[in-house]
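Hi R.,

As promised, here are both runs. First protein below:
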Amino acid sequence: MSTARIEILENGIRIVDLEVPRREVSDFIGSLPEPERAATVARAVELGVLALERAHTGQDLEFVRRQINSLLQDVQATVAKIPEETQKSLVAKIGTGEGQVLAPVQSLVGQVGRAADEKLAEVKQLLSQEIDPSKETSTLSKALRTLRDLLDPKRSDSVQGSLEDVMRKVSANDGMLAQAVKTVVADAVKPLAERVDALTLEFRGERAGADALAQTTEKGLTYEDEILGRLQGWSQISGAEIGHVGVDNKPGDITIAATDASDGTSKLILVVEVRDRQTPKGRKAVSDDLSAAMNERGAGSALYVSRNQDGLGKELGEWAEGACDRGPWVACTDEHLITAVRFLLVQWAIVRKRAGTRTLDAAVAVAQIERIRTALGRVKAINTKITSVRGNADEIQREVEALRDDIKSSLTDLEECLLIKPNDGPGAAVQ
């Protein structure tokens, strides 16, 4: 007998001694680095639960539709009884003699009933077109809102409000006549209003499930496609070869291939890891991820891109450099994407030319690299100040943009000096 146990925690669950007897699961999890396996299994459980929850909700959609139709029928039947119940109450209190107040009241109450029928017909028409509980602007949300408004005693166009208006026209004060009508209407619509509120809460739960799904790794795939499109746009100018390799669920999402124009044979593969996360990663974790990606893709340089600074540890900031056994890497936020790619390509070209026989003004190249690093350091410092000093934000931002232009100018000068050109075909990283 299985000894597996699932413990329910305050913010999640703990699985003890659970075995999943599927070869596909074993193959996929086994292909991942050991530090990533637990997190990947947790994400798989999260996505699976959300998918099952959404599937269950979809199966119940027809039941919800029947519930709403039943509710509308009950509302219509109840509203239809209001004139008769009102008349009975009035007859008991003020009589039905010729010239008494009952005759005009009965006519006006009947008009209110007909107006309510027209609104209910509009609600049914909305429901026949679309049901999408995940959208505030869907016809289902509009239908429920219209129905709540029809039963809301605070609104002048509701059943209660319309009848109160009738009473004000018939009677000059809030006497026995108005009180009798209010009692009849309130007793009739109270249970219906409670049912509408219950259905509204049910659909709010459905929307919350959709929002939870949007916070999982599925959201990250959208950001990966966004980065791929921007790099492909840049490659139209630079001529670099862009490859989307992350679909195989192995380390590394995008590769960039470039060739040294001086000999036409030296090639570099630069691998890019794309992350859209709210929890920060430190330097060691980023370096380990990039080392695994470089080994997997045969790359000589690597880039770690985070959508914003929330995904990078404080010691990294919005720009940080490092190196592993395969070569140098850069970790940066989204705004530095193209700058980081160009920076790594320039570094690679300088190393190639120092190792070759062609002459290279090393002092000029090193000076330009230091100029870029200095400007990037100032950008980081200024951006830190921007978050705490908003009064001079416009002036600071202009200085940041000027420094970024300075960085781009230096990269352009280096690229022209080093004659970097696109890769003519698939190749391996420089060894």
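And here is the second one, sequence first, then its structure tokens:
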Amino acid sequence: MFNNKIPNYKTQAAFYTLIELYNLASTPDPESIISNKITILEHLTTADIKKEKVREDIIEEFKQEDKDIRILAYRTVLEKFNDKYDSLNNHQKAILKELINSIDNTPRLKEFYLSKSQEIKNELISLNKSTKDQVTKIKIDEIISLIKPLDKNHRVNDNNLIDLLQYCDLLNELETANA
């Protein structure tokens, strides 16, 4: 048992100690709390730095490769991406394309999100008028009420984009059902 090493033992012990300190009935030692929090923070910050360094090394190594190898790697990544997302409909593919093209341009992505969400909302409203089933109409009304524009300070995140993809899938199902 003593021959086995536990990775990140110090961090795990600090985390366990913090949990136990907060569960004590008596007042915990402030020095112990601070030292354990510092241990956890050091672990979190150095882990991010190590990941970023590895990523930079991989990118630098990739840049030094022969042009043919880079093209082959790009083609392989593209094929895997296309295979994984082949089942998406055209609206969903357009959303992913815009995400890829404007990943570093947040104002453009936010503008796209706002216009696309409004477009989906309008399509849902028009589809709701042509739906005959009353229960489905109520559910569509609920979904329409969930689609709200982002605040000025809010950034587009993964959950917003996933919502858009799911709304597009819903639109596709409703169009198929009403056809």
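A quick note on the second one: The helical segments are 9-23, 30-64, 67-84, 90-101, 106-130, 134-146, 158-178. Let me know what you think.

Best,
J.
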